[in-house]
């Protein structure tokens, strides 16, 4: 099972849209896919019209009570572990574990699903915490959406510093430009400057109405408009992520 985390310490960069649409693209290609909504806001869960069971919470998650809380989506081959509001306390719960266990907790929790799924996606909250360290440890690939603006680039720099601090494999990180508006000269100039770095993928995701409408239609863009520019870009993005992520 390949674990792909969609992560940035900055909010509003398109993490959840990326996680939902890449998970959908993976499932359509025939890969058994599990999307885990790690963000207490539950945006990915909302897109799939799924709520966590009332008794499911952060403590149950860390206790390994996962299998019976995984729900099937409306799409074949794509399952979801929905978020719970208590996930906002995951860092506190992780901190209560022993030092040897706390950084690898997520990796151990999902290890039993290695035979059941081909791809595990983690839709991650925007923070730089103990949970972030767990995500880095668990991920085979860490996909970082970057809006072509200064603050978003700073968030990427912070991620690189965290990898260095943890002595983690920087080759796990893959960045791509998200929410790109070609009419903005700053976006174009930023992409021109940074797209030359090997860290960045060639594929970018434009700022498109189809993606914004996900909040209304509550489905991946490929499910409602398979031939739309947005759907095609997410499919291209997933193929490039796969290509760059080999071998794991």
TrEMBL record:
Pfam families, alphabetized: AAA_31
- Which residues are in the AAA domain? 1-174
Question: In terms of domain of life, where is this protein from?
Answer: Bacteria
- UniProt-listed InterPro entries: AAA_dom, DNA_Partitioning_ATPase, P-loop_NTPase
CDD domains hit by this protein: ParAB_family
Q: What protein name applies here?
A: Cellulose biosynthesis protein BcsQ
